[in-house]
Amino acid sequence: MPYPVRASVSGKRGKAAVGALLVGVLLSACGGGGEGKAADPKSSASRAGSAVPAESPKPSASMSAGPVQELADADGDGRPVEYYQEVLAALAPRCEEDVPELVNVVDATLKRLKEKGVDGETEFSVLQHLEHWVPAGRPATACAALAEEYVGSRDAT
Fold this sequence. Notes:
This is Lipoprotein. Residues 33-76 are annotated as: Disordered. This protein has 7 helices and no strands. It has one domain. Helix 3 runs parallel beside helix 5 (99-116), helix 4 runs parallel beside helix 6 and helix 5 (99-116) crosses helix 6. 55% of the residues lie in helices and 0% in strands. By secondary structure, it is mainly alpha-helical.
């Protein structure tokens, strides 16, 4: 039975390359090392145009397509419901409201913007703006109140 031949690595560059390779293999095996990666431009989060990172949490089973589908249907522009789900998945943990209530907040916010004379908004753009507007890394907050602040910050177009 033949024994494997050990590759000979000479010089500092060769040893550094082997070391870097080993570190990369170990990091990828442990799931680390992705902090500095750029988002894949083909990822659905990038196509959605939101601040959702490429590795956002997957929409949970509690995020049924029903209420989220209503947002997509209201826009009527053919944008996949998955885009709405991804942004909602990023926003929902920051809010006291559950997903059906957040859908109502988004819808009401769009209506208030239109009443105020703000044009060019859609359910999806309002959802994205709220996702940007609600701070991450803090305890869950009343997103309906923050949506009102957002409406107040907008001027008629």
